[in-house]
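Recall from the previous lesson that a structure prediction takes nothing but the amino acid sequence as input. Here we apply that procedure to Cellulose synthase from Quillaja saponaria. The sequence below is the only information supplied.
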Amino acid sequence: MDITVLFFLILLLIYRIVSLNNYGVPWLIAFLCELWLTFNWILVISTKWSPAQSKIYLDRLLQRVPELPPVDMFVTTADPVLEPPIITVNTVLSLLAVDYPANKLACYVSDDGCSPITFYSLVEASKFAKLWVPFCKKYDVRVRAPFRYFSDDKATPNGKNVADLSEFQQEWKTIKDEYEHLCRKIENAVKNSTPFDGDGEFAVFSNTERKNHPTIIKVIWENKEGLSSGLPHLIYVSREKRPMHPHHYKAGAMNVLARVSGVMSNAPYMLNLDCDMFVNYPKIVLHGMCILLDPNTQKEVAFAQCPQYFYDGLKDDPFGNQFVVLFRFVGTGLGGLQGPFYGGTNCFHRRKVIYGLSPHDLENTRILSEKELVRNFGSSREFINTVALALEGTTYAPPQHNISNSVETANQVAGCGYEYGTGWGSQVGWVYGSTTEDILTGMKMHTRGWKSENYMPDPPAFMGCAPTGGPASMTQQKRWATGLLEILLSKNNPIFGTLFGNLQFRQCLAYLWFYQWGLHAIPEILYAALLAYCLITNSQLFPKDTGLWIFAAPFVVLHLNSLLEYFETGQSVRAWWNNQRMSRIITMNAWFLGIFSVILKILRISEAVFDVTQKEESNSGDGDDEDAGRFTFNESPVFVPGTTILMVHLIVLVMKLLGLQEPAKNGNGSGPGEVFCSLYLVLCYWPFLKGLFGKGKYGIPSSTLCKAGALAAFFVHLSRLI
Ligand SMILES: O=c1ccn([C@@H]2O[C@H](COP(=O)(O)OP(=O)(O)O[C@H]3O[C@H](CO)[C@@H](O)[C@H](O)[C@H]3O)[C@@H](O)[C@H]2O)c(=O)[nH]1
Ligand SMILES: [Mn+2]
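The prediction returns the following tokens.
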């Protein structure tokens, strides 16, 4: 099917070239847009062509339990309002309860919001964890994020026969009450944050501002006895921030976590999660280790990436943000190349790769000199020592000291001036310079010659929450388009990686395909404009005779092809259509604005910022389920392009209907092809059409309507002039 689509696209291009002389500039522009589409399709085919997935043999690993290496687990949160603390708490609880020797785990939470409420929530959560974790392990609970576990109101033990059902039910009830108690405490704290201004543990938070405060590191829980059945260490980290110091958003937070954990536990492996991604499958750390400990992959695989799945997904994916098809086909496709992209969450890393090691370095074990270490990693002697251990390390010695003793050093390496003049953000750690730091960091590793592995267990390893509503989806997509384009236009362009580094050619094509997502906005908007122009001026964009089939064929096959992918992943026609139309909406709105913010960055007018996505505590249960999938709007300029396009096409269709078009020149007036495409576009913009008449957040705000109306009128007028 992929090849058939390509065949038809090439046929179409040839047709355009051959008949170019008979039609004017519009055909040339259309040709360029279609050329872009074809080029893009080639990149897609290359990416999907040779799929592969990893398979693991857990029983083999389980024979070597005493040898299991320590793993440091990172969670990032940035804003207690956009990311309610109870969500972070659930993620942390699910991590503390994973099936892995607890004395080999440490959980670090980075709080870029510097919020006493987040800290308080974690302290309370660690108390609850003392009940929760043993309960989970005793009854082999599958989903260890309590809010998901207790969303099922019945006390049903997991599969196996529980010897004493009433005992289980008793315990279940107690724990549920405790969890509700925890939720209430956190809710109260959120409602009135005043109690924290006082003294005790919270004194450090007084007089702090989110963007201006010293480092705050607190060891909330330490597994002092080193019990494998106990609770993992839990450490709260809020790195220093000062107004004049760039903090590099999430990448900066991850680098601080890498250093703080380095001086505290220095585990050779790391698992990193966003605050909203809980562990859905408690054996996943064992699985991750299966991949990374495999003697064959030791020398080649940098990281193991699990896909992102989302809980409480709305029926038929109305916002097109579940990405099931993308993860399935592109994810496995990459698996057959150099490996999946790093997705920023759900990923197991090797510490030494994060520290900049390449597979090549492993072969000629050159010990870095003291000077080189300081230049790359900064001046903390204690930290440098741990780096040297991590870079050498094939043997994992448990840390000799207890972690509370290293708080002072940790404070030092979490300072905002620590990275100044070092390799952090370029040679080592998470890479700076893009709001999609994840993919950039992963690509750097691929460029060094590492591979990565895809891992998709059933049940899904991790579950997160996808943004709901128009504005949140658009913010996220705009940030992605911005971040990806930033990379494309920087010295980190993958083409250089292939020419001068070890990035494989087809992997480079895959990265290119991904990075130029935002640019799709240009041909799509041009095409929409051309279509309207041709209908207004009664000229042709498509042939009328049998030539029309040359255009209809790729259109049909392309859609059929993608429909089949949705069927293959068990989704409905509705879900497919929702994703089709959301692609159009996202491309022409969010990605289009993404291009703008990159241009502003290049012109040094404004920096690209990382806007955090709003996380909902729960999508269901607030009563207005009927409206759950309805598109929402706000005053953001992101909705102007779409509203304009919709208005233009409505005007054009009415003109056509009423015969208000100009008379066709030499008999070549617009015909069914143009009308069909225009109708198709209006159908794609159905949520906007409803928004024209909607009220409140479901309606397009009048300011947007005015702007779009003026632009539409201008366009129609201009089209008639030229
Ligand atoms: O200054 C910041 C901004 C964000 N974050 C954290 O970054 C994570 C991701 O933020 P979110 O708003 O949820 O963005 P998404 O678009 O959902 O995230 C996807 O895209 C990001 C890159 O744009 C990646 O970093 C994420 O891992 C990936 O899941 C969250 O845990 C935030 O707390 C910080 O720690 N500091
Ligand atoms: Mn997220």
